[in-house]
Amino acid sequence: MQLATSIFNRLLDAIILLGSVTQVLVKFLPLILVVILAYMIYGYRDDLYYRRIAGSRIAELDKLSLVKMRFFMGFFMQWLGYEVIIKEEEPPEGEERREYRGKSKREDVDLLVQKEGIRYAVLVEVKENGVGNKVFQKLEEAMAKYNCGKGIIINNGRFNKIDHQEAGYGDIELWDRDKLIRDLLYLQGIEDPKGHGFGFYFHDFLRWVWRGG
């Protein structure tokens, strides 16, 4: 009898403890769910970022030399609706390539393009973080020489704070890695340049969760 009473009391204590724990869990359940959801969203954002990079094929662009990059950008801007007036010549094949590597036959500007009646002087760079003041000086001189209303600096890396300040002093557009990725995705029909609405990302997130992240 005493043994049965002891067991009963222990079960009763366990039930009371379980009830207390359940109350605490219920109380903090919204917070727990928010933390889990935030963790999942960060995971989805990382996955989306790498999917966009892979889809854009910008890694193939990173492998190009500066001269080949300049040559490619002539076609790239044509695909975006710009009329190319002056462009870099294609690098030669064979033995001459070693002498030509890294050189441009035009020292003052890489491209001259026009769109909607506006002429642009364009410089192409392959720098990881910032292009420097000399590039802006070179572009401004080219804009004056070729009577351009605006200028564009294309860089497959990033622009730093000083670059953005320099660009703000004149009519200069900065095309960084993020813009190149967006445009490459657009030209391949993968992504609309205006971006996607909430509905697209919501359903894409649900698909990502369903696949297991």
What is the topology?
Layout: H1 2-56, H2 58-62, H3 66-79, E1 83-86, H4 96-100, E2 111-115, E3 118-125, H5 133-145, E4 150-155, H6 161-169, E5 172-175, H7 177-187, H8 198-211
Parallel strand pairs: 3-4, 4-5
Antiparallel strand pairs: 1-2, 2-3
Helix pairs in contact: 1-7
Just name the CATH architecture of the largest domain. 3-Layer(aba) Sandwich
Give me the secondary-structure category. alpha/beta
Average pLDDT value?
A: 81
Report how far the terminal alpha carbons are from each other.
56 Å
- In quaternary terms, these chains amount to single chain
Radius of gyration: 29 Å
Estimate the global geometry from the Cα principal axes: elongated
Instruction: Strand order, main sheet: write it out.
Output: 1-2-3-4-5
Share of residues in helices: 55-70%
Poorly predicted segments? 95-105
When the domains are counted, the total is 2
Strand content: 5-15%
CATH uppermost class of the largest domain: Alpha Beta
Number of strands: 5
Give the ordered list of helices and strands: HHHEHEEHEHEHH
Total helical segments: 8
How many strands, what sense, and barrel or not for the largest sheet? 5 strands, mixed
CATH topology of the largest domain: Trna Endonuclease, Chain: A, domain 1
